[in-house]
Known about the structure:
Structural class: alpha+beta
Helix content: 10-25%
CATH class: Alpha Beta
Number of domains: 1
Strand content: 25-35%
CATH superfamily: 2,3-Dihydroxybiphenyl 1,2-Dioxygenase, domain 1
CATH topology: 2,3-Dihydroxybiphenyl 1,2-Dioxygenase, domain 1
Number of strands: 15
Radius of gyration: 20 Å
Distance between the termini: 40 Å
Shape: globular
CATH architecture: Roll
Order of helices and strands: HEHEEEEHEEEHEEEHEHEEE
Largest sheet: 8 strands, mixed
Amino acid sequence: MLRRAFVAVLLTLAPLAGQPARPPIVGIAHFALKTSDLTAARAFYGRDLGFAELFTMDNPAGGGVLLALFKVNDHQYLEVRPELKDPAEDRLSHLAFETTDARRLRDYLAAKGVAVPATLEPLRDGNLGFKVKDPEGRDIEFQQLLPGGMHAARFGQSMPESRISARIIHAGLTVRDRAAADRFWHDILGFEETWHGGRTDDAVDWVDMRVPEGTDWLEYMLNVRNPTPRTLGVMHHFGLGVPSVEAAHQRLQQREVKMTENPKIGRDGKWQLNLYDPDLTRVELMEPKPVQTPCCSPMKME
Length: 302
């Protein structure tokens, strides 16, 4: 009987026969956002935040630039797309995560019932990737950087000292149905909760979900109803890790960057500074560790 029970436990823990295992998801690959003014966005991300513009891609259908790519580090980028036509439109284009094996991840998600492309072909940038829809209907991309791709060809380049940060540490997305989000991000993709908190101690307005094989996290932005464009810009945001928010604040002041907020300690106990690009997308500078006890729940650190 003990042997049977042991075998039964092993079977519940192992992937079902014939089903592919999930390959590693190691971190945020890029945050893609829309702008109504590419010149103004370039000034913000290039001059103000100090990121190098690695390359641009032209729209294959014509009509100018498809995207401008700003490099944070060899594996993380900001995609700025001049696609914003309506002031009421969501500024978020899509969020991408890096995997070590895009084909295996496609097969794994297909086995889990997620709608995926029938086949994968190299992208225009020479990498391998695909998009799926999250429970909110947004585009989520998974990308594998390939040795012959445009990104890998520039490894070690275009990372100037002017960068305000060298790491995208998190990204925030609105979530209306937490149970559905957990089924997708936790049950299928393997993300793990590291902290949750709220505007009051008994509320849950934010949930941090860490990638399974890395340290970056996705932040559920809960309880957001009928958001204005500005509210969506606050909620659909990305976080840049900095050793010192105060030092980053001083650098931005020296560059005469327009700021509407001052550094503060958030409910998670970490120093942060909120900036806003010309189209109101929030950029959150954040120190990696709390300096005060986080509210609401213990925080799992690396």
